[in-house]
Amino acid sequence: MKRLAGLILALFVGVITWLALASLASAQSISLLAGGGAQDGVSGLNAVTAPRQLATDGTNLYVAESNANYVKMLDASGTFHVVAGIGTRRPSGVAIPELAPATETAANSPNTVAADRFGVTYFTTASTVVKVDGGGAHPIIDTGPFQPDGLFASLDGAFLYVSDSGNGRVLRYDLMTCAIRCAPPVVLATGLTFPKGLAVATDGTVYVVENGLNLVKRISTTGVVSVVAGGGSVLGDGGPAINARFNLPTQLCIATDGALIIADTIANRVRRVDLSTGLISTIAGNGTANSVNNWATPAPGQSGGTFPINAPIGVACMPSGATIVSTEADGRLYRVSGGPVPTVTKVATTAAPALTATRTFASTNTPAPTSTRTLPPTMTATIAPTNTPLPPCQFNKTPINLPCAG
Which of 104, 154, 360, 399 shows the smallest number of beta carbons within 10 Å? Predict the structure, then answer.
């Protein structure tokens, strides 16, 4: 009798958990944030073109636009700013000039982006990591065989984490050593198969997408590597994440509730892993590419799990609880639930407010002494164009009036 009661209780808990996941998935509404353009015939939505990986500094959204050769920032008021790039590529063999104005410097096919809360931005171009601050743009990592396919900057500005995809490593750079070029990094993990997007929890635990094996892995603060999700043969929604199937996932982020949000790219889905229960669900995408749906736009209030998204490649977890999703193939940014919604306006043609701050640096992965650094007056976060503004049609044809990142 006790055994039967235990089985009934386990079944009851399982059903309640499944219902909770189903309710969560259905509660996640999706809306178009920006992009679309020629693909769906909607004019005035070209503030982004082919967005790839995303990042947040705790307030604003950053977008790496590889094909457009730009890095952009969407601020909390709903305005896009150019952080780096001029829309064209540098000639082959021409190096990035040291400390040149970022908005006058070609940003060749930026693939990944990261930012700290002081507005200092990092992006990758080929085998180089470029830093953008008030002094301009300059390469800080460009040595050795190196293929950076994922970046994460700690919000306090202390560390930069890099997925070195070609060499199967996850690296941590101490940004206190990066005045000109960064000192050699701490190697957090090796032997990975094409690691890509990564994120770091407040306790220093690193989560990384292992694209080549369709896995998400955890790197503990003591260096232990374990599987968090993936490796299964079925989709697996509602069940343990370690039994679920991924199809070339690309980027992940950590939501405000501590869950992992994963761009499951070729599966045309955005997945959520509840780390407290180990269960997985889909919050956006129904497994069908939007291209076969004539580039549809979400209906008002549409459930994220019922809308077809086209190969999501980037995700950013915003402080409001919203998730921003990028789809490079159809040039869009989507917003999935969470928080108040301002409106997207246009690409900025005036400078952002100057930024000065005091930073406190403390290790988020291994114990280290606490030190302070005060930004000099010249180190500002003026990231809007300072050169002659490009014509608005380079970005959008009319002001955008769509839901924003929140």
Answer: 360
Q: Which of 253, 237, 207, 224 is nearest to 55 (CA)?
A: 253
* pLDDT tens-digit series, residues 226-266: 999 999 999 999 999 999 999 999 999 999 999 999 999 99
Amino acid identity of residue 54, one-letter, is L
Residue 295 · residue 42 · CB < 8 Å? no
Q: How far apart are CA 337 and CA 278, in angstroms?
A: 22
DSSP one-letter code for 211? G
110, 85 in Cβ contact below 8 A? Answer: yes
337: three-class secondary structure by DSSP: coil
pTM, rounded to two decimals: 0.79
How far is residue 63's CA from residue 51's CA, in Å, rounded to a whole number? Answer: 6
Alpha carbons 31 and 77: distance in angstroms, whole number: 18
Tell me how far apart the alpha carbons of residues 285 and 375 are, in angstroms, rounded to a whole number: 43
For 208, 216, 317, the CA distances from 287, given in Å and listed in that order, are 23, 19, 21
- DSSP run (H or E) holding 65: strand 61-65
Compute CA distances 277 → 224, 229, 251, 262, 281, whole Å: 20, 12, 21, 16, 12
